[in-house]
Design goal:
Low-confidence stretches: 1-32, 287-294
Largest sheet: 7 strands, mixed
Number of strands: 16
Mean pLDDT: 78
Helix content: 40-55%
Distance between the termini: 48 Å
Length: 422
């Protein structure tokens, strides 16, 4: 670019320079090295890379999981290959969790916050959390009653709990051979952060917060590495025992929701993670979630325009929708989709489109299609999206999205829900 050419002589004399270039070619930041960047900027840099990796990886996972599900639907449950396919699906689920962690710490995860009571979320995960630890480790929950509500995506609260409990478990297990209490404690309380506290904790905001703390009786954290624990891919665990994404994911989620996190630890005396989550005076919606849906309730006859640039995802989604009775027109990009409408004069009830595509993104396509079919229903699919359908990674009201990798059930339920919406 012209900016790069203009400042080329500067870069020729600097090694390991990190720089960003604005769209007009003007350099807006220069830093001697990635290591010297602030933790925030360092995470942003790695997060941008991780987000792109997660996007491509989610496409691969969608194809793998989807085709495994289709194969399973075609086989008798006693077929000798059924167990093999179930193992593929299990591995796909584990890999999917890894991409969620990548998007979590990079704060590129699209979330759907709702008003909820954090105690209910934590209590609901009691049994699952016990499955993550050994039988000789106890979990104690001290949940303060009468807490104000918070606004959060429950899936993100669950991610935080899982990562912190697993981290606590590993810290406790590192004290092998020492007589000590093996205990994890999860506590909640209502706290107000005043200006005095904020002045000493720059990343915090004043006001009413819910404090979620997870403490353990583990080995503790050495003071020398305390500043690095939230860095992505930093781990003290043995090779193959951890990705170094757990605490980075927690940090990313907390910051994405305008909260703050602190860690207090002494070597051989355990660790406490304290999360301050802003509270809300809004009430929990009285609307109940739908009960389990039967397969017959998901079938349909509507016509769907499916637009997806990844051929594997496109073929899988088309086959899945067709199996449930829908008539599907498939296109590889927005230009081809609009051309099909114009030349073939097709009539469609719904647009299912990927969000990130070359040339024309899903939001731009949806606006063009709505000019032709004013009443058309729209469902976005994406593994990593941008602010065209979200504000600060929070899904805009009235927008419907399913995240990659998605199962057949998630796809069909999503389609049926949008078609049946008012």
């Amino acid at each position: 670019s012209k900016g790069e050419e203009k400042y080329r002589h500067i870069f020729e004399n600097i090694q390991d320079v990190y720089y960003e270039v604005a769209l007009d070619g003007v350099i807006i930041e220069i830093s001697p090295s990635v290591e010297q960047l602030s933790p925030y900027k360092r995470n942003e840099l790695i997060g941008t890379l991780a987000g792109g990796i997660a996007h491509d990886f989610n496409n691969l996972l969608t194809v793998m999981i989807g085709n495994a599900e289709i194969a399973l639907m075609e086989l008798d449950e006693n077929h000798p290959l059924s167990d093999n396919i179930h193992e593929i699906l299990k591995s796909g689920a584990n890999a999917s969790n890894l991409t969620r962690q990548l998007l979590g710490f990079s704060r590129k995860q699209i979330i759907e916050p709702q008003v909820l009571n954090v105690n209910n979320v934590i209590s609901g995960w009691d049994k699952m959390l016990h499955r993550l630890i050994e039988e000789d480790i106890s979990i104690e929950m001290i949940l303060d009653s009468g807490l104000p509500n918070i606004k959060a995506d429950p899936a993100q609260i669950e991610q935080i709990l899982i990562n912190l409990v697993v981290n606590a478990r590993d810290a406790i297990n590192q004290k092998t051979g020492r007589d000590s209490v093996k205990k994890i404690t999860i506590e909640t309380s209502h706290i107000y952060l005043d200006e005095s506290y904020i002045s000493q904790h720059r990343e915090s905001t004043a006001g009413s917060h819910i404090l979620i703390s997870v403490s353990d009786s583990g080995i503790g954290i050495d003071e020398k590495i305390k500043d690095k624990i939230f860095d992505p891919f930093f781990t003290t665990k043995e090779l193959g025992m951890g990705t170094g994404l757990g605490l980075a994911t927690v940090y990313g989620i907390v910051k994405q929701n305008n909260g703050s996190i602190g860690v207090y630890s002494e070597p051989n005396h355990g660790t406490v993670f304290k999360i301050y989550w802003p509270s809300t005076d809004k009430e929990i919606s009285s609307e109940m979630k739908n009960e389990a849906v039967k397969k017959d309730d998901l079938t349909g006859h509507e016509s769907i325009l499916l637009v997806e640039d990844n051929i594997g995802v496109r073929n899988y989604a088309k086959e899945a929708l067709t199996k449930f009775g829908y008539h599907v027109y498939a296109a590889q990009n927005g230009i081809d989709a609009l051309e099909s409408i114009k030349v073939e004069n097709i009539q469609v009830d719904m647009l299912v489109t990927d969000m990130i595509m070359p040339g024309m993104n899903g939001k731009e396509l949806s606006l063009r299609v709505k000019e032709i079919f004013q009443e058309i229903k729209i469902l976005y699919i994406s593994g990593y999206t941008n602010n065209h359908i979200a504000h600060q990674r929070i899904l805009k009201e009235g927008i419907h999205l399913i995240n990659k990798p998605f199962s057949i059930t998630a796809l069909i339920k999503g389609v049926r829900k949008v078609l049946d919406s008012g």
